[in-house]
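Consider a concrete sample entry:
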Amino acid sequence: MTRYDLDSGVGETVLDNGLTVLTLERHAAPVVSVQIWYRVGSADEPLGATGMAHFLEHLMFKGTDRYARGEIDRITLKLGGSNNAGTYKDWTQYYFNLASDRWETALEIEANRMTNLALDPREFEAERKVVLEELQMGRDSPWGELDETIESIAFSSHPYRHPVIGWRSDVERVARETVRAFYEKFYTPRNATLVIVGDFDTRAALGKVIRHFGAVPAGPELAPGKRFEPAQNGERRITVRRDTELDRLEIVYHSGRSGDADEAVRDVIEGLLVGNSWARLRRRLVEEDSAVTFVTAVNDARRDPGLFWIWTELRPGADRAAVESAIHEETARLASEEVGADELARAKKKILSDLVFRHATAERAAEDLGQMACEADWRDVGRAPDRIRAVTAADVRRVAEAIFAPANRTVGWALPRGDGPAGKKPPRRPRRARARGAPGGTGVAVRLAPTVVALPNGLTLLLARNTTVPVTAISAWVDGGRLREGKPGLAHLTGEYLAKGAGEKSARELADRLASLGADVTTRGTGLSARCLSEDADGVIPIVGDLLMRASFPEGELSKLRGRVLSQIRADRDDPEELVIREFHRAVFRGHPYMNPSRGTEESVAALTREDVVDHYRRHFVPGNTVIAVVSDRPTEEIESLLATTFGGWTGDNPLHRTLPAVAPTKPEVLRFERDIDQVQIALGHRGVRRRDPDWYALLVMDYVLGMGPGFTDRLSRTLRDRDGLAYDVQASIAGSADRERGRFLAYIATSAGQRDRAIRGIRREIDAIREELVTAEELADAKAYLTGSFVFSYETAEQLAGRLVDLHRLGLGFDYPARFAERIGAVTREDVLRVAKKHLQPTHLVTVIVGPTER
């Protein structure tokens, strides 16, 4: 495998006041990621004042002696960039992504709020309400209470037992003076690492850092906290009851520290268990037993010994005891038998490839350096590949034996209320707590010059080079999605079925081969996407060809897949946010394919047959109905030759697409769905526009004034969220869903039950206002600056670029669209925004859907 040095060129400088500065020049794109990482998190909070680090994460955007509330977000908006923050057990992170000619502004802001946070009493109380809404939103999710509870049981004395967001009683009563003392103690140069990655000159950058941070007082010496967790000497178990339909299981094991001698071994163990679709736990529980919809695991190493997590969601009727026993048996097998050489090599190859994929952006490279600087040593980022390569089968067995001992585990079940006793969930690193919108970049036009190849059989190839990292990305689009299916859910099931066998290979053989190549392939009803190291493209592209041209759809797989999809449909009903959007679509798109969830309905999926799938595949997966984009650092002629060899013999007649039904205008109505949760989820809106609508550019600008601005810069966020504290998240958009068919206008908010009517009135008020009065000149200029400035980041990685090439082709926008985007946005006027708001926002046709305690 080609070596790729993840930390090559990283420089470390320590200022006189103790601030550590890490710099890494990368000149492939004109962007810079500036991140400051404080070595403080929820584990540093005293009992009775939990949640302070996360609360401060919010308050750092609420004003300093120089920046008023909301001004940091507005400055970032004007610069066409993004800022965000995140908090975890051992760290708090703040970051900016900005163009390489304006990133110094991030240093000014961070140096100022390091010592001059205002903590205005009114803002403090307003943000307390927002944090409480966020806390409740997390607990109302299907996994929220189980997540919170299991960690509080697994740790008996270590502060890792407290949730990052804090206990509700602590957040409700923590005093401003207590938070101020916490800030003054921990938010200092001595306790921080500044990371700068991207297009800059190191010597000049360090001069800027010294200018802004050099005079900041170092802060107090911080002695390492005495945090201790006694060895667990017996299994612990908990059960929580939820108003849900499915059983959910989490098992956690005490493990090790970030950067310790065995962290790479734990990463390999994670890969062996869940690293691909036929890794041990996925093979046993998903593919063979068909007992769960998914199973995954995370090696969650921390500054002190952390946890190794396994979690799964059971299919209806699955035997709980059998599922739990299967997990214990597979982990015990890792501890008692040495893994085979081929299986170990596949797991290691996939981990090494993923490390390269992750570092395709400046932001992710900076993130890894900052996190390791807080938890261990930033140099461990560069050491990781060699440590992974060095892991042996004996290492895996030794570490698995220590971690997976029965006495070392805590088992948690979340079960439906009223049931008997127990027999896509993200990793536990909540880094995206605030902002929306794409990262920022320059306002310079993006110019594409792909090679377009039309093969004699009708297949269209779009080829481009990207030399940032040695990665090849493939995006294959087949015009066979929801709009083309004869029965709801057929396209989705076909996409799931694709990976179950192709050519002469079975599902397991496909998965093993892809794992040995370190490749990712995701199949769907509209084709697939894939990525691999470029040196492995010769092995991956033929597999892509088999999936698109020669999928076998084995008879025995249908019942398993159908059962899994049915379970996912029920899981969506357990999630209040998923439910409110589903019911909104059902009401707004009556009579149109968009009214049905992409997975279909329980009734439609239960009736689907293998013949339905094969017929859909044969009709739509044909060369004249397909576009394949490939972006690679390899010469274009090599990729073109490989594709022509693979797909040149593909045959098939183009399908006759059915005429889609006309949809009547939306009728105003209010739909309520009772759920025993604390928040209400609210969606209101109506039909939207097509992407080719000439008003689309003005509507996009309107969106960013009304409800999609980054941070809290749009009207809904400034009023309902930032001023009134009604919600953690509120947004509205019409342009984002526009496609070949008309999309939707959707406004969304989650708020406490008692604030339901006030929240709805507030959204309606802002819709009326943008239809009745011109937006201000500043609002218009800010939205346009952000849109043109952030545009470049949609074209940063090979995967993004491949997807964009397909979209530009299928929507008929032309490959000169990126070069014209800034001009089109720049031409939008205040009068244009008012005109399109009056035309396309229809307050008298709003459908309102409410999920939650509707009777309160």
